[in-house]
Design brief:
The protein is an all-alpha fold. It has helices at 4-30, 32-38, 48-97, 100-128, 132-161, 174-192, 204-212, 226-254, 260-285, 291-311, 327-339, 342-351, 358-367, 371-386, 392-409; strands at 317-320, 323-326. It has one domain (4-195, 223-409): Growth Hormone, Chain: A (Up-down Bundle). 75% of the residues lie in helices and 2% in strands. The longest helix has 50 residues, at 48-97. The protein is globular.
């Protein structure tokens, strides 16, 4: 991929795109507090924006993988930022139209953008890092930028809404969406002017054969690899865990009088800040610690923290830095340290040894990211019936699968398949 300095502009662009993925995705999650007030949504329906955002992954994952293969990284990323601008713009207009369906539509459109951006940044950074632990390390650095965007979204929405959930409206959160649209516009210009390598784009010979209908059908594909198939399932569960932990807590604690949206939003921002800290650690030591060990131990610790969330009384408080905080939210915040490095570790383990199948594998991978909408929706559906805190048992079950994947499921047992 050339020397490190020549790749630096590309790496910076990928990091910026990582930022936007989290900022816009968390915008949908943070707005859950708003729609419960303005549109009278239940806990489950409050996650409909997030569900729409992630269902778009299921619809766009494989097509976006094909776009990446045929049109390359630059075209795919430019298309993604245009779609993202439109999606956030529709969400912005929903506040003035006072329409919940329009808001959900905007979240769905934005989800197409997030899917395409993810398909660009993950394989590109893994390739620039040379795969293996080094590839994981570069993804962790990108994940750090992702966490900055994730941290800012709920804090900004929380403080714009204020101290009472009764004041929550989409119009009050409009400045956050304006910021997102401005960043998309700037990103378009920067990407347009940046020279981006195309390591996985189809060759002219492959294109000619495809158009002529003479391309030789490959008997294998990404799903021929057991470790990739199980890794795609792991990503489905992981993104559901990552999103479900803060989203459910935000809606629950914002509705408690002595907490409110501003404090809850700030604490949820702290969750994403902890993810930033964890990813900086992963970026610094990712080349020295195996992805398998990273995933195993963080999954086990996350299970421990969630058990604490479930059994700590709702009224339990702790004073930190002169502020009285809900003890349960502190454990939620600490979960961010665990979920921080899981994405990079799972992606790295799942695509290891895939070679020419990496680009289509990334598309399949992104389709399974829809777990980030599906699992929080069902978690909050569960919360409507058994309570928000008890709903975290669903996420503990998902974490148990990640433990299995780290211990056994991530082993490549299909090394006989030719990948070059």
């Amino acid at each position: 991929m050339g020397n490190k300095n020549s790749n630096l502009p590309v790496i910076i662009v990928m990091f910026a795109l990582f930022f936007m993925i989290a900022f816009v995705t968390n915008l949908a999650g943070s707005m859950g507090v708003v729609v419960t007030n303005q549109f009278g949504a239940s806990k489950a329906m409050s996650q409909l924006g997030t569900l729409a955002n992630f269902i778009a992954y299921a619809c766009m994952g494989i097509p976006a993988g094909l776009i990446l293969k045929r049109k390359g990284y630059k075209f795919t990323s430019l298309l993604a930022v245009v779609v993202g601008f439109i999606g956030v713009g529709v969400q912005f207009l929903s506040g003035y139209a006072e329409s919940f369906p329009v808001y959900v539509l905007g979240a769905f459109i934005a989800g197409f953008s997030m899917c395409m951006l993810n398909i660009v940044v993950n394989p590109m950074l893994n390739t620039l890092g040379g795969g293996g632990n080094k590839g994981n390390q570069l993804i962790q650095w990108g994940g750090s930028c992702n966490s900055i965007g994730a941290t800012l979204a709920p804090i900004l929405v929380g403080w714009l809404v204020g101290g009472s959930i009764q004041n929550a409206t989409v119009a009050k959160a409009a400045p956050v969406m304006i910021i997102a649209m401005a960043i998309f516009a700037i990103a378009f210009v920067v990407i347009l002017l940046t020279n981006i390598p195309e390591p996985h784009m189809e060759t002219p010979e492959e294109k000619a054969a495809r158009l002529a209908g003479t391309a030789v059908k490959d008997p294998h594909g990404p799903l021929s690899f057991r470790h990739f198939l199980l890794g795609a399932i792991a990503i489905f569960f992981y993104v559901g865990i990552e999103v479900g932990i803060p989203n459910t807590a935000n809606v629950f604690y914002s509705g408690i009088d002595w907490v409110g949206p501003a404090l809850a939003g700030t604490m949820i921002g702290g969750y994403w800040l902890c993810m930033l800290i964890g990813r900086l650690f992963g970026a610094s030591f990712g080349a020295k610690i195996s992805s398998k060990n990273m995933l195993l131990w963080t999954s086990l610790v996350a299970i421990l923290f969630l058990v604490c969330v479930i059994f700590v009384p709702e009224t339990a408080k702790v004073t930190l830095f002169g502020k009285t905080l809900p003890l349960g939210l502190v454990f939620i915040l600490l979960c961010g340290l665990c979920t921080s490095i899981m994405w990079g570790a799972i992606f790295n383990l799942a695509v290891e040894g895939l070679g020419k199948y990496t680009a289509p594998a990334s598309g399949i991978f992104m389709a399974l990211v829809c777990g980030g909408g599906i699992i929080p929706f069902f978690q909050n559906l569960l919360a409507d019936h058994v309570g928000s805190l008890q709903s975290y048992w669903l996420l503990i079950a998902c974490l148990a699968y990640l433990v299995y994947y780290a211990v056994s499921g991530s082993k490549n047992v299909n090394k006989d398949i030719v990948v070059e």
